[in-house]
What does this fold into?
Amino acid sequence: MDVDVAVVGGGIAGMSVAGELARDHAISVAVLEQESQLAYHASGRSAAAFLESYGSPEIRALTRASRPLFEAGDDDEAPLFAPRPLLWLAPEEQVGELDHLLVAEPLLRRVDEAEVLRLCAAIRPGWTAAAAIEDGAQDVDVAGLFERYRRLATRNGATVVTKAAVRGAEADGDGWVLRSSGGDVRARTIVNAAGAWADDLARLCGITPVGLTPFRRTVAIVSCDMVDRSWPLVGDVAEGFYFRPEGNGLLLSPADETPTQPGDAKPEMEDVALALDRANEATTLNLRHVRTAWAGLRTFAADRNPVVGYDPTCQGFFWLAGQGGYGMQTAPGMAMLAASLIRGEPLPRALADEGFDPQRLSPARFA
Ligand SMILES: Cc1cc2nc3c(=O)[nH]c(=O)nc-3n(C[C@H](O)[C@H](O)[C@H](O)COP(=O)(O)OP(=O)(O)OC[C@H]3O[C@@H](n4cnc5c(N)ncnc54)[C@H](O)[C@@H]3O)c2cc1C
It folds into this structure.
């Protein structure tokens, strides 16, 4: 196969940039995914939240730029949002952190304990010393988002190949030859959207890694007789736990961050137990019965900002990695940004209007 751009990684990062690049038919695109199933790793395991008050200033700008696409896609496709406010709780020792967040983020408003209990009757009275709410937070239809980009890419001629693990790459004239288990691919540009494996892919291509660390995060679905589906997403500001309704149960996480190797992450029983303990401390729910649990990898660079841009040392190697815990909510903005940088075009309007500086995400910052 011979294409302009070979995207390595069939998660949300790879599929969304493939969709954006294929849009104008001027660029031929192939997506290579090592698994037999797309979105098998981080992109299939998220908590599906869209939180504009979460992450670095660059993450927040990318999240804001993504909002219109979630609200209504191209051709007035159905919205991918369902409203679910975010309620930050702060026990006494976290009040300073919450105050800081309230100053930094105008979207948050302080709420008193009476309002906390009105929003979620399960919070243990007296547990939280201060609280704030982001009214516009949302649940995201992550499968719908992924499918929208997959359709956009394939309808516009992109090729998607599963069981295509890239195991070697050689520079070839003004491009690359990728050796994959699905066959060889010749491409002018490689987009490294390999998630937890992005540093490994760089090494395969003879490029210095940027220093990404995959951190395991655990999620459990627990039975909960008292659940009210209108409860917000509830978490403590220091990120010790979060929960939200999921069907007639609760989705619960200890917000763990265990550094690990790239791979098929599995939940550890002690992390699930920790989630139950922390949620039971903060609420009167007395959660006990775990229906199912999973884990996934949130992959961060040292400064916790994504890595987006051409490698400064090697022509035709583009990084789209380090999305950490924000890869769903930022995917539309990040895909537009990456596609504009790959094409050598000006920044997307939504980011330019904010004075967004793409250098803040460039891999050159690690050189
Ligand atoms: C528990 C959990 C909760 C989360 N909650 C949220 C949330 O609420 N909101 C939010 O915005 N984000 C959330 N995230 C983060 C979000 O899921 C990720 O940022 C995002 O999915 C990263 O997408 P990706 O495409 O970069 O990675 P991935 O989905 O991991 O995709 C990378 C792909 O590359 C493939 N690959 C790697 N190496 C090769 C190779 N050599 N050849 C071919 N293919 C290769 C892999 O198989 C993989 O499919 C959460 C993550 C986790 C784990």
In short: Residues 34 and 165 are 4 Å apart (CA to CA).
